[in-house]
Amino acid sequence: MTDTLIQVTGITAGCITALSALPQLIKIFKEKKVEDISLWTLIVLITGLGLWTLYGFLKDDIPILATNLFSLLINVMLVFLRLKYKQ
After folding, report:
1. How far apart are CA 71 and CA 3, in angstroms?
2. Which of 30, 60, 78, 80 is the most buried (most CB within 10 A)?
3. Which residue from 16, 73, 84, 75 is spatially nearest to 40, judged by alpha carbons?
4. What's the first-to-final CA gap in the chain, in angstroms?
5. What is the mean pLDDT of the chain?
6. CA 60 from chain center: how many Å?
């Protein structure tokens, strides 16, 4: 495999994974209902994404860094909305 194909594969996989939480975020914005969102699951996921982001930074791997940072931001927003609308 060429380096370009490897980079494109990594970026594509990371983007698809990062976008997986976007429908949930949009649904919460529209409905303002968060009863079925597990805070502990989000905390575990954010911890893992933070570590992947750090790994991407340490390895100087832009696809890993960028896509996990994007996922991290989306999931932090989910936690924020979970706390905001739960009350």
Report:
1. 24
2. 78
3. 75
4. 51
5. 90
6. 19
Rounded (5°) CA angle 24-69-67: 80
pTM for the predicted model, two decimal places = 0.83
Please report how many Cα atoms fall inside a 13 Å half-sphere around the Cα of residue 83, on the Cβ side: 8
Residue 27 sits at φ, ψ, to 5 deg, of -60, -40
Pairwise CA distance, residues 73 & 46, whole Å: 9
Q: Flag whether pLDDT at 72 surpasses 80.
A: yes
Distance (Å, rounded) from C-alpha 30 to C-alpha 1? 43
Our CA dihedral for 37, 30, 27, 42, rounded to 10 degrees, sits at -30
Range of the domain at 79: 3-86
Backbone angles phi, psi at 60, to 5 degrees: 55, 45
Q: State how many domains the chain has.
A: 1
Q: What is the reported pLDDT for 42?
A: 93
pLDDT value of position 6: 86
